[in-house]
Amino acid sequence: MKIIAADSGPGIAPEHRGRVRERFVRLDAARSAPRGGLGLAIAAACAKLHGGSLDLEDAGPGLRVVIDLADAP
After folding, report:
1. Distance between first and last Cα of the chain
2. Pairwise CA distance, residues 12 & 51, whole Å
3. Is 6 helix (H, G, I), strand (E, B) or coil?
4. Number of domains comprising the chain
């Protein structure tokens, strides 16, 4: 099963997509916004807990998040 979500915001540069899955990581452009830097880290941890994965892709413009639970029990 795949869960896909996309937005039309500024997106995340490919070189930063690995880092933003870590807890409390906030890129320079987001540091002044009132957020905690946990959303993608929590989603990635939940996907992993269920035997799946979380991938970030370009939505042109925006970001596309794909949670793949195909290998989940």
Report:
1. 11
2. 25
3. strand
4. 1
